[in-house]
User: Fold this.
Amino acid sequence: MSQGFRVLQCVECSLYQVDIVKKTNRWECKVCRQKQVVHREFFRGSVADCRSKVQQLNLERGQKRQAQEDRKILEVQKEESESSSSAAEAQLQTTQLAKAPSKWSAFVDEPIRQAPKIAYSQKIINQELNLDEPENSSTKRPRVSNKRQAQNTIKKPFSKWQKFL
Assistant:
């Protein structure tokens, strides 16, 4: 039986993390070291699936937080632009903010692509029926036996000192 893993969210720092399923209902955050009780389990599965889910959830959380900060900045700038007479300068600043990349773009790689899952039995069936390879005889490689070749020739004993003699 394989070990189970789950995705949890910390109450203090709000980060999603992977945790091993245990009998107890307690866990410790790896970032803020806060010991806490499991309130909600977001996902359960293998380690690789949990890690990709944690990356996705943390990325979405970061993007939402970045969007909220951008909205607050834009609201403050709009209030300033209404009070000030230079509306053209405010528009330049908002366009510069809109063109600026998000903080998360520096840390985000390409999206994780999951390989299509083919059943193990399907692979065996394809190998038995040779569906993976074409049956063209010109493309087949000749078979080489793994047996040792007979030693018909008598080899002279070779010493590492022989080249110095």
Notes: Strands lie at 5-9, 16-20, 26-28, 35-37, 41-45. The longest strand covers residues 5-9. The chain has a mean pLDDT of 75.
